[in-house]
């Protein structure tokens, strides 16, 4: 592709190797991006279900989920709209613990994450196992705000942030990949920021 | 509107766009009209990504809503200039007619109008751009009866396409400027209710602050929340 006449790198290099291609450091801001009206969900009305191809379909209420081992993610997040945010701290529970209780069947290979709004996003099962995915209700030491997906959202920080479904309510395990909301709307099925998998058609 | 499940993903690829015209209607707005190579048709509401490439292969990219109708021979983008905006600053200060940019689109298959479903738009600031594309498409098709638009800006200086919107019959509401017998202020439920009547889909576009204000306004004017489609953008430069 052509070099843009008169355009040069102006920003300082980010901390070595932390910024995926085409991303910039948003600094202290945390932009809000949603496709729908922001819902108001009380913790008492929230629950998380793991079902589909599992031996033991299971639902946890807010209180039951809080009795699972607490898990923290400290690190960076990357949005497909090109901002990245360094050194975020989220707290919640590990998706590994939810899956351990529900016991995926051998044929389960994909996850379709559902929000209570109807939003969905698809992920390979291996992207939400091995300590790489969480259900979180705290960000930066405070309860997750509604516009950022509170009371609880999925967190899969090694993929673009649309995979981290806000207002998470259900993880459905599937044998075949089934596209979610943005994926049907032209975004990539996997969304690895380091390979710049933004849109359908990216390698 | 077709259900989301009916949408078939369409691949887009990077291509090149040549700047054919460049205007700066106000100090913080840049209007670019591009000739896009290997162009794909778009629906009103969709956006394009513009990518700048430095000699060392460093790149920066941003998304911009399309203002033009699909039958327009050029793709028209409105860029809001942000202080220290890496991409918007380049497009405002450096880019000239004849420059070639990397572009990709159309992107976004949710926030778009099919030009068949009765619709209402409540848009603010540079968020008016997708509504401009919808109005232009409705006019081409002779279906202006299907679309009602309410556009909100601080004052005329901060509302792109204000004259075109007014000519197309949009409600133009200024929050800090009295105009045409209308006292400054956000649109009221009384103003919005007739626009929303009969609409089967509602489009809200603007800053997060605007969206936070606009969505309850529409619901207050009788719009079913499940029909609201939102496009928010932040000051990302």
Task: Give an account of the 3D structure.
The complex is a heterodimer of chains A (about 200) and B (about 240). Chain A has about 200 residues and is mostly beta strands. Chain A has 3 helices and 11 strands; from the N terminus they run βββαββαββββββα. Chain A has helices at about 60-65, 95-100, 180-185; strands at about 25, 45-50, 60, 70-80, 85-95, 110-115, 120-125, 135-140, 140-145, 155, 170-175. In chain A, the strands form 2 sheets. In chain A, strands 1, 4, 5, 8, 9 and 10 form a 6-stranded mixed β-sheet that branches. Chain B contains 5 helices and 11 strands, in the order βββββαββαβαβαβαβ. In chain B, the strands form 2 sheets. A 6-stranded antiparallel β-sheet of chain B has the order 4-3-6-1-2-5, with helices on one face. In chain B, β7 (about 120-125), α2 and β8 form a beta-alpha-beta unit. The radius of gyration of chain B is 17 Å and the shape is globular. The interface of A and B includes residues 9, 22, 29 and 201 of A.
According to DSSP, the number of beta strands of chain A is 11
- The CATH topology of chain A turns out to be Sulfite Oxidase, Chain A, domain 2
**Gyration radius of chain A, rounded:** 17 Å
Count of the domains of chain B = 2
Order of helices and strands of chain A: EEEHEEHEEEEEEH
Instruction: State the shape of chain A.
Output: globular
Tally the structural domains of chain A.
1
CATH class of the largest domain in chain B: Alpha Beta
So how many helices of chain B? 5
- Enumerate the strands of the largest sheet of chain B in spatial order, edge to edge or round the barrel: 4-3-6-1-2-5
- State the shape of chain B: globular
As residue ranges, the low-confidence spans of chain A are none
Q: Mean of the pLDDT scores of chain A?
A: 91
Q: Per CATH, which architecture of the largest domain in chain B?
A: 3-Layer(aba) Sandwich
Strand content of chain A: 25-35%
Helix content estimate of chain A: under 10%
Biggest beta sheet summary of chain A: 6 strands, mixed
CATH class of chain A: Alpha Beta
Q: Give the distance, in angstroms, between the N- and C-terminal Cα atoms of chain B.
A: 32 Å
Organism (chain B): Nocardioides oceani
Cofactor (chain B): FAD
Keywords (chain B): 2Fe-2S, Iron, Iron-sulfur, Metal-binding
InterPro entries (chain B): Cbr1-like_FAD-bd_dom, FAD-bd_FR_type, FNR_nucleotide-bd, MRET, Riboflavin_synthase-like_b-brl
